Amino acid sequence: MIQSLQDIAQHVVDRVKNSGATAADVMIREDDTFSVTVRMAEIETLKEAISRNLMLRVFIGKRTATSHTSDISGAVVDRLVDETVEMARLTSEDESGGLPEPGFFQGHFPDLNLFDPSWERLTPDERISLAVRTEKAAFETDKAVTNSEGASFEYARSRVALANTIGFGGEYAGTSAAVVCVPIAESKGSMQRDYWMSAGRHQRQIETPEEIGRKAADRAIRRLGARKIPTCQVPIVFDPLCARSLLGHIFEAVAGSAIYRRSSFLVDRIGETVASPYVTVVDDARMPGGLGSSPFDDEGTQTQTTPIIEGGVLLNYLQSAYTARKLQSRPTGNGSRAASGVVTIGPTNFYLKAGLYGADEIIRSVKGGLYIVELIGFGVNTVTGDYSRGAVGMWIENGEFKYPVQEVTIAGNLNEMLKNIEMVGNDVTFVGSIAAPTLKIGKMVISGA
Amino acid sequence: MVHSNSIFFEKYNVTLRDLEAYLSEALSRGGDYADLYFEYRINHSIVLEEQIIKSATKGVNIGVGVRVISGGKTGYAYSDDLNRENILKAARTAAFIANASAAGGSLRVPTPLNQERNLYPIPIYLAELGIAEKISLLQQSDDAARAYDRRIKQVQASYVDETKHILIVTSDGRATWDLQPLVRLNVMCIAEENGQRQSGYQGGGGRGVLDVFTGDLDPHALARESARQAILQLRAIDAPAGPMEVVLGPGWPGILLHEAIGHGLEADFNRKKTSAFAGLIGQKVGSELCTVVDDGTIPFRRGSLNMDDEGNPTHRTVLIEKGVLQGYLQDRLSSKLMKAPLTGNGRRQSYDHIPMPRMTNTFMMSGDSAPEDIIKSVEKGLYAVHFGGGQVDITSGKFVFTASEAYLIENGQITAPVKGATLIGDGPTVLRQVTAVGNDLELDQGVGICGKEGQTIPVSVGLPTIKIREITVGGTEK
Fold first, then answer.
1. What is the mean predicted confidence (pLDDT) over B320-325?
2. pLDDT band (50, 70, 90) for residue A117
3. Which of A31, A47, A322 should be substituted to probe chain B, the one whose Cβ sees the most B Cβ atoms within 10 Å?
4. ipTM for the complex?
5. Residue B106 has pLDDT above 90, yes or no
6. Residue B61 and residue A190: Cβ atoms within 8 Å?
7. Per-residue b/e over A109-121, b at no fewer than 16 CB within 10 Å?
8. Which tens digits make up the pLDDT trace of A46-103?
9. Of A44, A48, A149, which has the smallest distance from its Cβ to B93's Cβ?
10. Which of B50, B352, B400 is nearest to A94 (CA)?
């Protein structure tokens, strides 16, 4: 008989109870993964495996330690339990430490439509052909597509189980898949690469291979002949995948861990206007079929929909049990366990809500400005909000794309950038748990020639 | 401690007969080549924050990756334990890549090879040290950072270590193993004054045990440096925008080479002709002042390895000599397909990842100029000494790296500190703009993490002081 992950987790919790710990929780994650990369119409890599990770957290009073292991066989886990309890004795008393309060657990879990059984009916050859068709579509888009870093299909069937010493136990399963295409276009001896991807839990959420391949090819081709432009201050339009990175910075700045450390430009600003009135951001763990959805978080806390910014006003930070205690707030179901087992703050479905405009309307509104299609580098300081990143884009003149631009940076400060969001697109694009639509920022400095 | 035999033979009772069975299963559908990567890794991490030890973590990862190569195709599977049935199952899964009708590679019975050198001998396993000594490093850091200046309001110090045992067995008959220690200490400070907050960061480490934390890597020294950067930023002015003459300080600014040159010279990108450097071997890509090396053989360095993750010894590889491009960084697959010699650069994050060409310790050799003369020679420019991360688009060749500590140079003098800014340039041409190279090569302090296709590995970078005629600085002040 196959043991459920929850039974194994519960068994470890029982074992911990007898080892001197006063409280503990155990999470087990299992991923059954398949991935294939196809390049120049040939399979390049094919990878398949089941991986497991058991994460243990123990408390002795207000002291804590964590551990994790890929080997969940009895002997390894037994030894790790003792070692973890031993480590906990040597850490400090932390007033805010401990499991979530019992009131934050839920007995009954909603069905969030996270599992699509139809993936399992695809044969390996059918899965491989998704990648083959995607790359083929990119090559067939235009003869300027001369090379490829490949197209890939990745699929995972995952199970998560959690149990703790105060009676919580739960398990859920989900599927997720992504198709990615990275073509290279060439003209006059210079090459440009771009990508497009589509991801979801259900087959129907994913664009067809032909759509993905064509979009990726178009994105690479339009970058051919890119040039540097003079330093200037102009309106900037972020495409949805680039706007997504901005939402990532907002997420980092509203994480309860950054707030109690005072390492965020949004600290002490609840109730203040931090963005333009067109900006509404939510973290919605209960979105049916969402890539970031889950019935409970990695501490067992019930998940929820948390308004973050509404009409430009900052309403809430995201909390785990620990940060909530530190900040005299309530957990928001954003406790997230890194592979190491340490609980941090994670996004669920964290996105900027759709606005009124089509992307084409936003582009048409710009007399002279830059439409950003790729951002590179790590030049964002979430403590101060200072922002400076390498950019690739399309120069917009009188509402139309004129020519591609590269080797420039865009810079500003997130405080001003958020307040200068003038238009919000209606095209929120989910390829992960953070998402955004097309966004127009009134002005930023482009540094170039 | 000399590791004369692999832990997998001694402690886990893996036998040569088992290895032969696994490889034979892996080649059962006619693959050309197969290898097994056994890994047993123990990690510890401890975090100090708000002056208390907030968390202590231990991780145990054990598993085996099975790779089968058939022509240019790779099949890969792994097992999360050393269970014989699970490894055989992984071998069967990986074998699927090969076409059963094709003639396969032959299997030579693996022969254990003793390690000829040890670049990182250690007196004791990190896993056997108690945590009290490690906690003391963090407490010393916290004390030193807070003592540096009253405006330091938060200190987050973290200690991480890793003890990694690997055994690599190949179908061409080699069985090699290594024990790879790695430690790191990081100190992050937040300074606060008049409602303004700034952060500073410093870290250090290497392949060794706690004795690496001396000199510049002493916890007090790391903490003071972190605090100094946070305090300095309180009076930083907005960074300039536009092309400027730039002087890079020695050490960690070597991230320039890693992004601008190193990734573009990884063999896989050149074999596939997706790199802006493809076809440029033998051509001049930099000024004669520039000689760039990737050297995985420097004792105790973060990026060093006795052997790469395919069991081949690491090398010192000259990438650019006096401005001329010499060669690529190879792994087994690319070297076979390109008919080029191995360089010992096949690396992987862990047993659940496929190896690929990666850097080790990448740096530029010293030149003749005195660093102070280089600064004096600049009328108006930027002097950048500390960096955050960097990134490159290897196809267009454009790269960025972000200065976290930089100053204006005015009339040959270092003046005001400026806020963090991203610098952007073109990899294949940036070294042509190098107009002076200092005599002060330094390697970084041992904190580099390199990401490629979702895999992260430890690396080092290094640079002497250099002057670049023009590079675009991404600030806000026009």
1. 96
2. very high
3. A47
4. 0.93
5. no
6. no
7. eeebebbbeebee
8. 999 999 999 999 999 999 999 999 988 888 899 999 999 999 999 999 999 999 999 9
9. A48
10. B50
Cα dihedral sign for B5, B10, B11, B12? positive
Determine the residue of chain B that is closest to A69 in CA distance: B60
Q: Does domain A5-221 have CATH number 1.20.1250.20?
A: no
Return the closest-CA partner of residue A196 out of A164, A152, A133, A249: A152
Task: Name the nearest CA neighbour of B449 among B403, B405, B390, B394.
Answer: B390
pLDDT tens digit sequence for A279-319: 999 999 999 999 999 999 999 999 999 999 999 999 999 99
Cβ-nearest to A340 among B45, B74, B199: B45
- State whether B420 and A48 contact (CB < 8 Å): no
Domain with CATH 3.30.2290.10 in chain B: 7-233
Residue B125 pLDDT level (bands cut at 50, 70, 90): confident
Q: Across-strand partners of B382? A: B246, B408
Contacts of B271 (CB under 8 A, 6+ apart): B334, B337, B338
Contact state of A407 with B75 under an 8 Å Cβ cutoff: no
The tokens for A239 are 């495409």
* Optimal mutation site among B393, B447, B453, B471, interface A, most CBs of chain A within 10 A: B393
For B314-375, the DSSP string reads: P-EEEEEETTEE---B--HHHHHHHT----S-EE-SSTTS--EE--SEEEEPP-SB-HHHHH
Question: Which of A446, A277, A298 minimizes the C-alpha distance to A356?
Answer: A277
Q: Indicate the class that CATH gives domain B7-233.
A: alpha beta
Mean pLDDT of B86-100: 91
**How many of the other CB atoms lie within 10 Å of CB of B451?**
11
Best to test chain B binding among A42, A70, A83, A343 (most B CBs inside 10 Å): A70
List chain A domain ranges. 5-221, 226-449
Does the beta-carbon distance from A409 to B54 stay under 8 Å? Answer: no
- What does pLDDT average to over chain A? 96
Percent of chain B with pLDDT over 70: 98
Q: Which chain A residues touch B395 with a CB distance below 8 Å?
A: 149, 184, 191-193
The C-alpha of B370 sits at a distance from chain A's nearest C-alpha, in angstroms, of 30
Tokens of A299: 């501490």
In this prediction, residue A1 carries a pLDDT of: 43
pLDDT for the residue B2: 40
* pLDDT confidence of residue A101: 95
Query: Cβ of A6 under 8 Å from any chain B Cβ?
Result: no
Distance (Å) from the C-alpha of residue A144 to the closest C-alpha of chain B? 14
Strand B413-418 relative to strand B442-443: parallel, antiparallel, unpaired? unpaired
Q: What is the mean pLDDT of chain B?
A: 94
Assigned token pair, B25: 């299963």
For A:11-70, CB contacts with B below 8 A are 39, 42-52, 64-70
Tens-place pLDDT, residues B202-219: 999 999 999 999 999 999
B19 or B109: which leads in pLDDT = B19
CB < 8 Å to B199, chain A = 263, 381, 383
- Lowest-pLDDT range, B126-135, B176-185, B434-443? B126-135
Please tell me which of the candidates B58, B192, B354 has its beta carbon nearest to residue A87: B58
> Is the pLDDT reported for residue B432 higher than 90?
yes
In tens, the pLDDT along B157-177 reads: 999 999 999 999 999 999 999
Chain pair A-B, CB pairs under 8 angstroms: 254
* Alpha carbon distance, N-terminus to C-terminus of chain A: 68
CB contact at 8 A, A425 and A362:
yes
- CB contacts of B474 in chain A (<8 Å) are 379, 388-390, 408-411, 447
